[in-house]
């Protein structure tokens, strides 16, 4: 193996000559493996290429039997080579034979080789092959050697891609005939319906110059490109200033990534090994994409998309070409097709032309989705092989209501969706017209309807829907949109802005509810077998009271002269509530001593999400709790022992069932007797039929997702609760798994409008 940078550079230089030289692709590949074996001082160097059906085929070798070339094949996951491809990670084994994944291939003549080092060949985030070296001795390959192999692998990947050794169609399975209509399923990341023409996002910049002799000038090019890129992001940010709060926070976070020392440092390191600036950016990006495939933490994956967006931007500045579709002439109605998307990439497009976005990857919390929500653009994610199934200029319908995509739909389907778009607009206008009408039932019961919020842009929904206030402000969401724990000052500013935007309407802040599926990138945690039942929420903040105290301090400072309403998540017993409340009292005293303007009034409540608290509720109500808010999402998951995020069991229980409704009734009755206000802020309040049952049980405060406001208000305006109440009560002791259809029939028969 080479001992230093010089040897590595020499090898890369030779590879460049082979690649630039003549000869057929197979010929050049044969010469490349020989060169690598010589350059690295190994007995064997082999190149395996991915073929259709996830099969790795030996394409060229120096050291193994030539008879095995194009004969030896293994599946992804099979043997050491298959494992490297499956995990998209390097593997070094001094004693390959004793490795648990080793699979012996006699036809290769590998009996005499003991050690093996291999790295994946990656292009465009996909593993396209494996490069492996072997030695007769039990060689302990060093980190430096792995680095060299990876750099060589990157150069080789480009050669393979350019040489088209494998027919393009083998790299992905083509589903369906490209001219027939096709229905594809995915996950709704932002609801809505869009009808338009497919446009490929094409962020990839083709890197042709891989190696460079003059490291200093490459480093200077990188510096210039970084400066230009940051300048262009700044001007984009300046254009978006009119959009308040969290939305711009997302972009600020994105801007921060551009300064990320680790990212720039890694690019610099690769330039120093002899790569051109653009090849170094691509190498870091490819490494990151490969790692992304292994990362299960959704938050981290989402942040990695931001880095990818930056890499593409930087490449465009370096190469001066490769503009995305955003810069070309666009059709009037664009459905954007992409693998994934960064927030800034989305903003490159003229929003008045964007009708929808379809991603091969994507997840609900990614920054591009947050931006799409602000712009009201429907997004469907996790649509496999979208590029193989939808061609540019294909007519496409994005149905964000049902998580589906129609490619090349017939006229009737297209027409039906266009009608749907129109109906949605009309319905929205209808709900909008209801916004100043108080939600009073036909028999005169006033139900307070509040919204759930977590991003600053959600606050605009208060005026938009005419809600009575914010019943649940999820404070962890701003924590999740940042790259480090926010300071007391920045929290004070944030909560102050929230209160300011709420005007004279009340806001109930929930303290930090992290853990479970809500992870903070800057918070290292050990993995747990049952995270939903693990160290999360109030359990974390009581164990780390400094975090909770800082948050409460910020809330007190932000609500000077106003009412402060704060509640704690996941409280399981009175002791936890007392401990958390004691911190509020402590901070109130501390802030008073500092001369902070105190809140006009302080209301401290608890969420009720853990069934044990129902049985401790009488004691809690005596303890002076100011209000109770039922988090039905968690309460139902724990009551039915049914993971709320697992679609496989989603239909197994129904909150519209006798056990669930009886439980809610019990909580309501206990609170009413103690004259403690109780609300419900889980998803069930956002659905008209569930909200009907809740109002009939006696709930007078509901907090819901803003899109549910119109439909729930319309339902209430058309309901006579005195008719519904006895019927719902009669259902409580029925043996049904669900009373959904019975209640729906009842509503229909009684003229209750359910959207
Ligand atoms: C709930 O559990 O119902 C709730 C409102 O909290 P979250 O959905 O944020 O866990
Ligand atoms: Mg909850």
């Amino acid at each position: 193996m080479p001992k230093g940078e010089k040897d590595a550079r020499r090898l890369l230089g030779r590879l460049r000559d082979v690649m630039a030289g003549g000869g057929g692709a197979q010929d050049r590949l044969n010469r490349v493996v020989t060169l690598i074996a010589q350059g690295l001082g190994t007995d064997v160097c082999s190149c395996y290429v991915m073929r259709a059906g996830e099969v790795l085929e030996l394409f060229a070798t120096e050291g193994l039997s030539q008879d095995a070339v194009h004969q030896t094949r293994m599946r992804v996951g099979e043997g050491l080579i298959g494992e490297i491809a499956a995990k998209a990670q390097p593997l070094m084994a001094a004693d390959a034979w004793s490795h648990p994944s080793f699979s012996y291939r006699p036809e290769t003549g590998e009996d005499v080789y003991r050690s093996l080092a291999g790295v994946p060949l990656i292009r465009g985030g996909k593993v396209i092959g494996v490069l492996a070296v072997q030695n007769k001795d039990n060689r302990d390959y060093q980190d430096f050697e792995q680095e060299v192999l990876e750099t060589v692998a990157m150069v080789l990947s480009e050669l393979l891609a350019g040489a088209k050794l494998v027919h393009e169609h083998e790299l992905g399975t083509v589903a369906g005939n490209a001219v027939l209509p096709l229905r594809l399923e995915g996950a709704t990341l932002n609801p809505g319906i869009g009808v338009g023409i497919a446009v490929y996002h094409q962020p990839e910049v083709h890197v042709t110059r891989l190696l460079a002799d003059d490291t200093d000038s490459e480093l200077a090019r990188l510096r210039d490109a970084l400066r230009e890129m940051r300048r262009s992001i700044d001007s984009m940010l300046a254009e978006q200033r009119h959009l308040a709060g969290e939305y711009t926070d997302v972009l600020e976070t994105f801007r921060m990534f551009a300064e990320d020392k680790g990212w720039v440092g890694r690019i610099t390191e690769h330039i120093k090994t002899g790569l051109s600036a653009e090849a170094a950016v691509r190498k870091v990006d490819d490494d990151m994409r490969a790692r992304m495939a292994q990362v299960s933490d959704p938050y981290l994956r989402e942040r990695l998309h931001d880095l990818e967006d930056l890499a593409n931007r930087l490449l465009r500045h370096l190469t001066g070409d490769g503009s995305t579709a955003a810069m070309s002439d666009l059709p009037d109605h664009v459905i954007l097709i992409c693998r994934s998307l960064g927030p800034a990439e989305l903003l490159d497009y003229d929003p008045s032309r964007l009708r929808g976005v379809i991603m091969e990857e994507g997840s609900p919390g990614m920054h591009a989705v947050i931006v799409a929500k602000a712009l009201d653009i429907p997004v469907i994610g996790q649509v496999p092989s979208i590029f193989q199934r939808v061609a540019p200029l294909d007519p496409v319908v994005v149905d964000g209501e049902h998580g589906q995509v129609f490619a090349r739909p017939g006229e009737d389907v297209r027409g039906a969706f266009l009608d749907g778009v129109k109906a949605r607009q009309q319905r929205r206008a209808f709900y909008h017209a209801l916004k100043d009408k108080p939600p009073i039932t036909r028999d005169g019961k006033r139900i307070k309807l509040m919204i759930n919020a977590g991003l600053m842009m959600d606050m605009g929904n208060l005026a938009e829907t005419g809600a009575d206030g914010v019943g649940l402000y999820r404070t962890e969401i701003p924590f999740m949109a940042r790259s480090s724990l926010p300071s007391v000052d920045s929290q004070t500013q944030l909560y102050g802005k929230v209160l300011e935007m709420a005007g004279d309407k009340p806001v109930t802040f929930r303290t930090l509810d992290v853990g479970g599926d809500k992870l903070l990138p800057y918070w290292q945690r050990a993995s747990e077998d049952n995270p939903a039942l693990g160290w999360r929420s109030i359990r974390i903040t009581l164990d780390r009271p400094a975090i909770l105290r800082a948050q409460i301090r910020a809330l007190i400072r932000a609500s000077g002269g106003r009412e402060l309403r704060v509640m704690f998540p996941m409280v399981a017993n009175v002791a936890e509530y007392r401990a958390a409340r004691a911190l509020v009292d402590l901070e109130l005293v501390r802030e008073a001593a500092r001369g902070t303007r105190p809140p006009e009034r302080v209301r401290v409540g608890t969420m009720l999400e853990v069934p044990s608290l129902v049985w401790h509720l009488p004691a809690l109500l005596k303890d002076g709790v100011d209000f109770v808010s039922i988090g039905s999402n968690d309460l139902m998951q724990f009551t039915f022992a049914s993971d709320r995020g697992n679609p496989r069991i989603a239909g197994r229980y129904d909150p519209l069932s006798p056990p669930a409704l009886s439980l809610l009734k019990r909580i309501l009755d206990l609170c009413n007797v103690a004259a403690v206000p109780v609300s419900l802020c889980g998803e069930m309040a956002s659905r008209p039929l569930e909200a009907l049952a809740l109002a009939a049980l006696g709930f007078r405060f509901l907090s819901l997702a803003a899109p549910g406001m119109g439909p729930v208000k319309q339902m209430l305006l058309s309901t006579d609760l005195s008719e519904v109440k006895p019927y719902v009560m009669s259902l409580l002791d029925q043996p049904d798994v669900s009373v959904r259809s019975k209640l729906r029939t009842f509503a229909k028969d009684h003229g209750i409008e359910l959207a």
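The radius of gyration is 30 Å. Residues 215-239 form the longest helix (25 residues).
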